[in-house]
């Protein structure tokens, strides 16, 4: 039977359409497989890209804020440390800076752990080395990571009525320290004093730049420091003479005693170069901390003038005896301590850099290069240790029997601490000088200098801030620094 022919319709062109072709998979099985493989690869590629993009976005969302926070630490270190303390409820917490990770501990148990940790694992020296970059800022002083491996002119200086208080106090501290450290010959040498004055600021700036820039650029920055060479060149002859005296003393010759030689190691005596390096390091620390603390104390005296009279009365009664013994002036001691509590130079203390991995008893870990420290400012302003912690009470640390018996109406000199204490003390609530076996041994000298300068100002001047409402300090990392343009009017008292 013949198959009937089906007539084909014409298309729009007037031509018959072509019969439908065979499916691709019937005609080209290899091409079909290739196409399917391309589709699978395309889907896989898009999935991988999406995954990579997702990971990149997640990394940015996680990392960028951390990096940003690390850099904000430079400008708001005290604030970030305080926030961490407030949220931690006594537990350890971390803050990451651009160049180091800090782990803060504040409980009594962990502060004791920090103090007991061996120098070979948690090192104060290594932390100080990282802070100050002495190889660049102290004439090549590359100290080891482990410890042990090796009243003039005040009235004249304040004769200016409107005085930028911080630069003025720095000059007074430099003059006092120069005579105490090096004797009157260098202490009255104007060229040396200018270099010694500028050196502190140069060191602070250079150390910060070196920490944040690539190490290859560090020598270029160090060459800009001219003061350190001037100080080194002035001190080398003195140190050489001291070493010669040390050798003569071994032969039984009488020689004068000098504090730097008395405290130097006996078994491995220091060379003149090493002695100068030690003096430069001590010089920086004493000038920086003393001038900042005294400046804030003067500002507090201006803001709380009700303390001027009892402090002046005490100084006039007791200063002569204080000059002889270095003891006394308890009201001034308390006033200085309260000022340092509310406006401390530093917001961290007990710095230790991990030279080996370390783990606290609760499991908190430190990697090599991390720091462990205590949030000293937050602790000193905690209600756990200080009643009315943010209120200035200049005599809160004094003994009740030392408090003024009378005062003007509205003055409150009541004792508010559970027990009296001194500025030189160290305790769980007072880490200004560190803690335990590495508490600062120079704190007795520092407090004596503070009392000398403050007493001279209190006895001879009334003072007030030109603009009491103006901002008086700025912060960098964990440090609070007085602004140079804060003006104080000093008016001579009438005797």
Please tag this protein with its features.
three-stranded antiparallel β-sheet, 17 helices, disordered N terminus, Cytochrome p450, metal-binding, globular, 12 strands, 9% strand, alpha+beta, 495 residues, five-stranded mixed β-sheet
Question: Your description of this structure?
Answer:
By secondary structure, the chain is of the alpha+beta class. It has a domain of 299 residues: Cytochrome p450. The chain contains 17 helices and twelve strands. The strands form four sheets. It has a five-stranded mixed beta sheet with strand order 1-2-8-5-3. Helix 11 crosses helix 13. The chain is globular and about 95 Å long. Keywords: Heme, Iron, Membrane, Metal-binding, Monooxygenase, Oxidoreductase, Transmembrane, Transmembrane helix. Belongs to the cytochrome P450 family. This is Cytochrome P450. Its cofactor is heme.
Concise description?
The protein is of the alpha+beta class and 495 residues long.
CATH class of the domain at 151-346 and 386-427 and 432-492: Mainly Alpha
CATH architectural group of the domain at 151-346 and 386-427 and 432-492:
Orthogonal Bundle
Main sheet record: 5 strands, mixed
Order of strands across the widest beta sheet? 1-2-8-5-3
Report the average pLDDT across residues: 81
Number of E-type strands? 12
Shape: globular
- The structure class reads alpha+beta
β-strand amount: 5-15%
Along the chain, the helix and strand elements come as: HHEEHEHHHEHHHHHHHHHEEEEHHEEEE
Distance between the termini: 145 Å
* CATH structural fold name of the domain at 151-346 and 386-427 and 432-492: Cytochrome p450
**Low-pLDDT residue spans:** 1-27, 57-61, 143-160
Radius of gyration: 34 Å
Number of helices: 17
- The assembly state of the depicted protein chains is single chain
Per CATH, the superfamily of the domain at 151-346 and 386-427 and 432-492 is: Cytochrome P450
Family: Belongs to the cytochrome P450 family.
GO cellular component, one term: membrane
Keywords: Heme, Iron, Membrane, Metal-binding, Monooxygenase, Oxidoreductase, Transmembrane, Transmembrane helix
Subcellular location: Membrane
């Amino acid at each position: 039977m013949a198959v009937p022919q089906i007539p084909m319709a014409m298309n729009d062109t007037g031509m018959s359409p072509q019969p439908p072709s065979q499916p691709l998979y019937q005609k080209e099985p290899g091409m079909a497989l290739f196409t399917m493989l391309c589709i699978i690869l395309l889907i896989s590629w898009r999935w991988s890209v999406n995954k990579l993009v997702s990971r990149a976005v997640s990394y940015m969302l996680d990392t960028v804020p951390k990096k940003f926070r690390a850099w904000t630490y430079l400008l708001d270190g005290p604030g970030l440390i305080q926030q961490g303390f407030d949220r931690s409820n006594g537990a350890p917490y971390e803050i990451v800076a651009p160049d180091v990770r800090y782990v803060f501990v504040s409980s009594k148990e962990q502060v004791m752990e920090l103090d007991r940790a061996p120098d070979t694992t948690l090192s104060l020296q290594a932390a100080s080395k990282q802070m100050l970059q002495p190889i660049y800022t102290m004439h090549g002083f590359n100290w080891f990571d482990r410890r042990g491996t090796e009243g003039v002119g005040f009235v004249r200086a304040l004769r200016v009525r409107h005085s930028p208080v911080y630069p003025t106090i720095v000059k007074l501290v430099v003059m006092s320290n120069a005579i105490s450290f090096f004797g009157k010959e260098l202490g009255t040498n104007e060229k040396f004093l200018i270099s010694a004055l500028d050196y502190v600021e140069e060191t602070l700036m250079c150390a910060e730049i070196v920490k944040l820039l690539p190490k290859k650029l560090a020598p270029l920055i160090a060459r800009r420091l001219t003061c350190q060479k001037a100080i080194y060149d002035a001190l080398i002859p003195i140190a050489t003479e001291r070493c010669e005296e040390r050798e003569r003393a071994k032969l039984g010759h009488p020689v004068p005693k000098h504090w730097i030689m008395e405290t130097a190691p006996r078994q491995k005596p220091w060379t003149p170069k090493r002695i100068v390096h030690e003096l430069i390091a001590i010089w920086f620390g004493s000038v920086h901390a003393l001038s900042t603390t005294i400046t804030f104390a003067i500002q507090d005296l201006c803001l709380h003038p009700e303390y001027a009279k009892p402090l002046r009365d005490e100084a006039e009664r007791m200063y002569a005896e204080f000059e002889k013994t270095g003891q006394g002036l308890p009201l001034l001691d308390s006033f200085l301590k309260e000022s340092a509590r509310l406006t401390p130079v530093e917001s961290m203390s007990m710095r230790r850099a991990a030279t080996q991995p370390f783990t606290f008893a609760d499991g908190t870990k430190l990697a090599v290069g991390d720091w462990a420290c205590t949030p000293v400012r937050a602790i000193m302003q905690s209600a756990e240790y200080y009643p009315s912690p943010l209120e200035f009470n200049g005599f809160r640390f004094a003994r009740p029997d030392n408090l003024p018996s009378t005062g003007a109406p509205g003055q409150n000199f009541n004792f508010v601490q559970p027990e009296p204490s001194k500025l030189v003390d160290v305790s769980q609530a007072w880490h200004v000088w560190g803690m335990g076996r590495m508490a600062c041994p120079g704190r007795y000298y520092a407090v004596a200098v503070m009392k000398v300068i403050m007493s001279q100002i209190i006895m001879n001047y009334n003072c007030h801030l030109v603009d009491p409402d103006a901002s008086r300090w700025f912060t960098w990392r964990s440090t609070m620094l007085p602004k140079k343009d804060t003006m104080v009017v000093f008016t001579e008292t009438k005797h």
